[in-house]
From TrEMBL:
It comes from Modestobacter italicus (strain DSM 44449 / CECT 9708 / BC 501). This is DUF4439 domain-containing protein. Residues 1-38 form the signal peptide. InterPro entries: TAT_signal. The lineage of its organism: Bacteria, Bacillati, Actinomycetota, Actinomycetes, Geodermatophilales. It comes from the Bacteria. Keywords: Signal.
Length: 175
């Protein structure tokens, strides 16, 4: 005579409540509780700690604001030297100004200057305006990318994003 098939989830004979296997529901609840506990332990204590900058980083951010101001000034200078180029690069100049505004907002103590960035300097040859502008944008992208590893969080992301945007602009200027 054959024995009835045994239930694999049934406790062995003589097992107490402490030795019963977990039900699917209790296993799921334990996994969710463990995940929630792990997620809570992996977050930082405050958002302010992650956003804090050292005095050296404040100086670095101020320098990056100046780099971006130079890009905005380069667009103005190139547009003044070559009016036909001005119309073509106007959207790029607007993007550079927006990047400058975001960088100023992220830099502690960096207020927007009341004066527009200066486009003064020696006269720019209209035929070389595009190459000049491309070189200035590329140099700024290099500077922002070089400063990026010194930061964490949002400021690192901002510098990386601006560097990438400027690299895209340099590519458009090369065309």
């Amino acid at each position: 005579m054959s024995e009835p098939p045994s239930d694999p989830l049934a406790p062995p004979p003589g097992a107490t409540a402490l030795h019963r296997p977990f039900s699917r529901r209790s296993l799921l609840l334990a996994a969710l509780a463990g995940t929630a506990l792990a997620a809570t332990g992996c977050t930082s204590s405050t958002a302010d700690d992650a956003d804090a900058v050292t005095p050296a980083q404040v100086d670095q951010l101020a320098a990056q604001v100046q780099v971006q101001e130079a890009v905005v000034a380069a667009y103005a200078r190139a547009a003044a030297a070559a009016p036909d180029l001005a119309a073509a690069v106007s959207p790029l100049a607007d993007q550079a100004r927006a990047q400058l505004d975001r960088l100023r907002a992220a830099a502690p103590g960096a207020a927007a200057s009341s004066a527009a960035p200066s486009s003064a300097g020696p006269a720019l040859d209209p035929a070389g305006a595009r190459a000049y502008l491309q070189a200035e944008v590329t140099a700024a992208a290099d500077a922002h990318a070089g400063a990026c590893p010194d930061f964490t969080g949002g400021r690192a992301a901002l510098l990386g994003s601006i560097a990438a945007g400027l690299r895209g602009q340099a590519t458009q200027l090369a065309a």
